[in-house]
Amino acid sequence: MESNATTSRMTAIALSFMAVIWVSPFSWLILNAFNPDASGLLEIPKSVGLDNFAEAVSGDAGRQFLNSLIIAAGTATLSVLVGIAAAYPLSRLRIPGRNAFLWTLVLLRMLPSVGVLVPLYFAAQRSGLLNQLGVIISLTILNLPFTLLLLKNFFDTVPIELEEAAYVEGASLLQIVTKIVLPMSRAGIAVVWFYSFTGAWNEFLLPLIFARVQDAFPMSVGLYAAFGQQGAINYGFLTAFSIIYAAPAIGVYFLLRRNMNTGFAGVGVKG
Known about the structure:
Elements (H helix, E strand, L loop, with lengths): L1 H32 L17 H6 L2 H34 L5 H13 L6 H11 L4 H25 L3 H9 L4 H12 L1 H17 L2 H7 L7 H8 L8 H31 L6
């Protein structure tokens, strides 16, 4: 009995210790973000205000927020559109060498993006795409293996009998895809869109190299540049900027969570 009580106390101490480790960084972030006189210390602020947030959404920071939204939403939407156009034939047609192609996609998915950065850069330079559009296209290309595999697996779960019945009733291929396949695969589409959005939102290297001008940089590059600006670190601005930077990805998750909860259960790789 005494042994059980000792074990419970040790477990409670260990859990409390872990909670402190998890909570401390977030507490520091929130306390400094709402403190107009933030000093970078973990302390209760003497006054509370939104001055740091106002500064974080104005001027260059506000423009960087819009740039991040354009790059992330553009990449996610283009990845889904291209992925649907390529994954549906892969799911329905018995193409020779299809399994070898799918496993090649798996191997490509494992390649780090830095490994193909040089050819992407020179291709974009020759095409005049060293700008935000070039970033969106490059990130879409890097996302395609993951997008294709995931969407193909979701299309595989749609009963072919439904499509055959619609075809007998006179439906065209476009009507079959838009009115049967896509609605029944919306969970997978939501997962692909979410992952593509968050991946593009957090991307740092490609926008830094491709965008090249201050006005086209997203928040990920802006956060890096904000460290040590004017020879000093503005902790209030940085913490407010970090919270705003994290908010869209969390917001997108809650918007899509109903479909994504179903979609996560269907994630897998099949031949």
